[in-house]
């Protein structure tokens, strides 16, 4: 909430910070879906948890190359962190001194829970207006594209463990033997286990996590797309219901005890996309999850790498190739990250770009 947690000086690094190619591929995806389905119509680009603003900046740069969409978009950022929202202003607006922009902050005297609508508005360096919100519910309804990258994995979870007496919720308690915290099992059913735990007798997992907040977000996106049209792209660490025990913490790029020094480390849990599908409806179409390697390759990241290599100095080639490999290699981010899309139901068998079964594995980096 109050510091920059990204990059080498933070706790972790995200795909947009690794290479500009990631944000460019997502920007191209948005342009393609808009041209195919909503050409000529004004559309809101809504990003949930925009980090430093790097992904939004790369996408806006792509949009600026397509006059058809550049004049029809506005950017809406859902951000609760004061520290990160300041970094986003600097990145997207180009202001070096945040103190000179106090007059552009809206609702500054309202509490976070009372704030409705944007708490800040600016004009980006690329032209489109940017609005900041604390909740998705505050973003105006209308034709929208929803982007959530490494957002759902950071939402609060309920953790459950299978015992001889059935499933029990994992709770956090004060450790009487030391000055700290410990995990304990609830002695009986809890409200969360009754409300959220849906397992069958054939369930083989011993541990699993449930994220109701992610389900609520997907439900809201589904409702909006069904009503107003649009599409979404959700990308995160994830699986299709086969994993459990994925709750962990990172500090200074290393695994960290989540109960040690609470509030100082990044907490995460892999997203269960099979769980999220339960919160969609028949009014929308769902695609994925597919691996990041497949999505980016289908979107042409290999061709983009070749173009960048041709236009860059030779001393930059190693970083470009390294970034490409980190994003796409199965042993790095290529397999662990998944892409998931919700779109309005179409009359035909339309499939969004990147989600086609056609997947040609390239050896761009090796050949370079």
UniProtKB/TrEMBL annotation:
It catalyses: L-arginyl-[protein] + 2 S-adenosyl-L-methionine = N(omega),N(omega)'-dimethyl-L-arginyl-[protein] + 2 S-adenosyl-L-homocysteine + 2 H(+). The keyword Protein biosynthesis does not apply. Its EC number is 2.1.1.320. One of its GO terms (molecular function) is protein-arginine omega-N symmetric methyltransferase activity. GO terms for cellular component: mitochondrion. It is found in: Mitochondrion. Signal peptide: none annotated. Belongs to the NDUFAF7 family. Arginine methyltransferase involved in the assembly or stability of mitochondrial NADH:ubiquinone oxidoreductase complex (complex I). This is Protein arginine methyltransferase NDUFAF7.
């Amino acid at each position: 909430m109050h510091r920059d947690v990204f990059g080498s000086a933070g706790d972790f690094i995200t795909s947009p910070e690794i290479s500009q190619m990631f944000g460019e591929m997502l920007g191209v995806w948005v342009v393609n879906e808009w041209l195919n389905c909503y050409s000529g119509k004004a559309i809101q680009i809504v990003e949930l948890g925009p980090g430093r603003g790097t992904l939004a900046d790369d996408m806006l740069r792509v949009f600026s190359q397509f006059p058809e969409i550049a004049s029809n978009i506005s950017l809406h950022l859902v951000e609760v962190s004061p520290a990160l929202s300041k970094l986003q202003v600097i990145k997207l607006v180009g202001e070096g001194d945040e103190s000179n922009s106090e007059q552009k902050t809206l609702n500054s005297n309202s509490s976070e829970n009372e704030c409705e609508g944007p708490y800040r508005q600016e004009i980006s360096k690329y032209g489109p207006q940017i609005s900041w919100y604390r909740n998705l519910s505050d973003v105006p309804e209308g034709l929208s594209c929803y982007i959530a990258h490494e957002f759902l994995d950071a939402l609060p979870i309920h953790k459950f463990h299978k015992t001889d007496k059935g499933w029990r919720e994992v709770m956090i308690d004060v450790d009487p033997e030391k000055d700290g915290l410990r995990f304990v099992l609830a002695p009986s059913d809890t409200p969360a286990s009754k409300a959220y735990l849906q397992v069958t007798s054939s369930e083989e997992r011993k541990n699993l996590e449930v994220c109701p907040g992610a389900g609520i977000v997907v439900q809201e996106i589904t409702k909006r797309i069904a009503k107003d049209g649009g599409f979404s792209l959700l990308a995160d660490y994830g699986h299709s219901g086969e994993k459990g025990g994925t709750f962990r913490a990172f500090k200074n790029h290393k695994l960290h005890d989540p109960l040690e020094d609470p509030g100082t480390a990044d907490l995460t849990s892999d997203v269960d996309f099979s769980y999220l599908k339960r919160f969609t409806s028949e009014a929308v179409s769902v695609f994925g999850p597919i691996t990041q390697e497949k999505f980016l390759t289908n979107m042409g990241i290999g061709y983009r790498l070749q173009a960048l290599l041709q236009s860059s100095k030779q001393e930059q080639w190693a970083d470009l190739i390294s970034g490409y490999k980190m994003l796409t290699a199965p042993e790095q981010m290529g397999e662990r990250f998944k892409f998931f899309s919700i779109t309005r139901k179409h009359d035909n068998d339309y499939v969004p770009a990147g989600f086609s079964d056609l997947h040609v594995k390239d050896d761009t980096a090796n050949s370079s």
